[in-house]
Fold ArsR family transcriptional regulator.
Amino acid sequence: MSLLQSEHDSLPESGLEKSMSLVAAALSDPSRVTILCALMDGRAWTATELSAAASVAASTTSGHLARLLSSGLIICLSQGRHRYYSLAGHHIAGLLENLMGVSTHSRALPPPRTPEHLRYARTCYDHLAGELAVNIYAFMLQEKWLEPDGSSLTSVGKTQFHDLGAVLHPEARRKACCSCLDWSERRFHLGGDAGHALLTCFLQHAWLLRVPGYREVTVTKEGTKAMHRLFGICQP
């Protein structure tokens, strides 16, 4: 599998303002935003799948993907004759989550229609988001698994992660641990490598199950028991 370089990577430096305007322009089209939201599940999608998700023609989708590539918001992975698209990284997922939070304060926003099951548990790129995630984060702060600012795990937290089977990567290129503002709950959930490790652990234990093609995750019967036992959380 080879990574195709986006046009954004080769753009000459022309000032922060111009770079910001390019990103803002790429986000100005509802179809492109729909494509980005589909990629928030952390997996790579084909152009055909994204075309269906955005409900636009294949030719139109190609133009949107080219625009998103040139702005550095997505990357294209080439595997044989096939091409797959994904977000350019967890920082883009964080940008989109924050944008969702800002958008909910718009005076022109219609009444919220987010399904309750999506509000409770979903993915934010490669970590867990929603009510469940912010409750876990609050528990970790209370039990001193995290430093007060959420910037790192404490020694207690690292031990707890080890006991859970959540594997941390000491040489990860990304932030080891960070707080991520949850757009639907207006509180923080766990991001960074620690957030990814926790979600991976939950999936491996089959406490959570992905809904194919969507950001939604469901909590299994065993997962409900585990969330209560480990974090004192009762599923609504």
About this structure: The radius of gyration is 19 Å. Strands lie at 2-4, 74-79, 82-87, 122-124, 127-129, 178-181, 188-191, 208-210, 217-219. Residues 90-103 form the longest helix (14 residues). The first strand starts at residue 2 and ends at 4.
